[in-house]
Write the structure tokens for this entry.
Amino acid sequence: MNVPDDLRYTKEHEWVRVEGSHARVGITDFAQDALGDVVYVDLPAVGASVAAHQPLGEVESTKSVSDVYCPVAGTVVERNAAIEDRPELVNEQPYGDGWALVGDAGYNKDPITAQGITDAFRDAELLANAVHEGLSGTHDLDDALAAYERRRNEATMPDYRMNIERARFTPISTTERRLRSALQGNAEATRQFFLTIEALAPREVFFGPENMGRLMASVRQPVSA
């Protein structure tokens, strides 16, 4: 059974491939083999919102009809038109041309920190400003909305990348180990660090060269792994 090691898998036998800020989704080799010959695939339309761990479509085979579950929350930005015309691609190339859809992956925030709602307020303000610029004639509406999307993604990317690295259990870097050592016993710096991580303080201040240089100077030698 084919199990590529560059993918993430669910217990319902879907796979996810992270591609920048998007997630490509399909069903596994095991799933297609269990289904038998696939004759029809039903997928949500582009623009549809999908919820994590909820059905997003169906795969019909000569044996049965089975739900396909969405591994992550997000918005559908692309669906595979090829498998509408050739559903057998799901059997022939489950990790290749038989993929199902691509989503603009959502990301979850810890409810204890209320970061999700602060992000929502931030994005709402950015969007309101963009719409105002477009409708007032200050900028072309399409350009203003494109700028909004770019600003939103720039604000979101640091947390998104950090969550991806955590999910991969990537060992922390020497710089991060030194930073943690520098924060130990420094209550004010630790407070500013967590305010920054939770988006309650600007990242460019804490992680700026001046502040980071001052913190790192307090660590005489790199911390061993």
